[in-house]
Amino acid sequence: MSLNNIHPTAIVDPNAKIGENVKIGPYSVVGPEVSIGNGTVIESHVVIEGETIIGENNYIFSFVSIGKVPQDLKFNGEKTRVIIGNNNKIREFVTIHRGTIDKYETRIGNDTLVMAYVHIAHDCIIGDHCVLANAATFAGHVEVEDWAVVGGLTAIHQFTRVGRHAMIGGCSAVNQDVVPYMLSEGNKARAVYINIVGLKRRGFSEEQIKTLREVYKIIFKKKLKLEKALQILEKDYKDNEDVVKLVEFIRKSKRGITR
């Protein structure tokens, strides 16, 4: 690594592991247990501490804080960490806290956009290709699957899950699991339809979208008990991969679904 890529006002601990072509801007602070992969850019006034492992080609904007101790009264200084994958954009004033004894880590995947003022609390798991809009707040232990979109100013309750290809509208309050492929919104959040725009953008075929429309009606519109709806899906769509994953997601729910 060329020292010319580190601004002279930045404080980078000599024990930190810094890859090739990493840029670290003015007044940023990088702690001794931090690892930063090749090609990552750290703008000015960023603080990264604790055991934080950041992959390649990320862009981290000014005033971000990563790896500080969690806001969990049960935390007692355990050895935990933050892991961030590759090709992510993390915008201004984002806070990402390290894990607790639940998962021992907070994790963000690859190719995810984390917009300004987002808070990702301890033990959250964020997948690949997600979009977390401005000031969305993720309480501890939240899991967000791949390709999910979370609207701005939305708050997600601890231990809640957001399914793959789901979208949550802005200013929503989410305290139950958001079913894959669905569009949910409101306070409290309810599923209002399938995420049709997102699915089309990601190349879902008309046949796939038609099937998911039928699934939506069975779960949310026919006034069936949830168990009965799931039994119908398991019988009639047992060979459909999208539906199988959706049913598996619901069956694993501990908080119930946004219905």
Keywords:
single chain; 259 residues; alpha/beta; UDP N-Acetylglucosamine Acyltransferase, domain 1; Udp N-acetylglucosamine O-acyltransferase, Domain 2; 2 domains; 10-stranded mixed beta sheet; 9-stranded parallel beta sheet; 4 helices
Residues in helix, %: 10-25%
Determine the structural class based on helices, strands and strand pairing.
alpha/beta
CATH class of the largest domain: Mainly Beta
CATH A-level architecture of the largest domain: 3 Solenoid
Main location: cytoplasm
Family: Belongs to the transferase hexapeptide repeat family. LpxA subfamily.
EC number: 2.3.1.129
Pathway: Glycolipid biosynthesis; lipid IV(A) biosynthesis; lipid IV(A) from (3R)-3-hydroxytetradecanoyl-[acyl-carrier-protein] and UDP-N-acetyl-alpha-D-glucosamine: step 1/6
List the helices and strands and how they pair.
Blueprint: E1 11-12, E2 17-18, E3 23-24, E4 29-30, E5 35-36, E6 41-42, E7 47-48, E8 51-54, E9 59-60, E10 65-68, E11 81-84, E12 89-90, E13 95-97, E14 105-108, E15 113-114, E16 119-120, E17 125-126, E18 131-132, E19 137-138, E20 143-144, E21 149-150, E22 155-156, E23 161-162, E24 167-168, E25 173-174, E26 182-186, E27 189-194, H1 196-201, H2 206-221, H3 226-236, H4 241-251
Parallel strand pairs: 1-4, 2-5, 3-6, 4-7, 5-8, 6-9, 7-10, 8-11, 9-12, 10-13, 11-14, 12-15, 13-16, 14-17, 15-18, 16-19, 17-20, 18-21, 19-22, 20-23, 21-24, 22-25, 24-26
Antiparallel strand pairs: 26-27
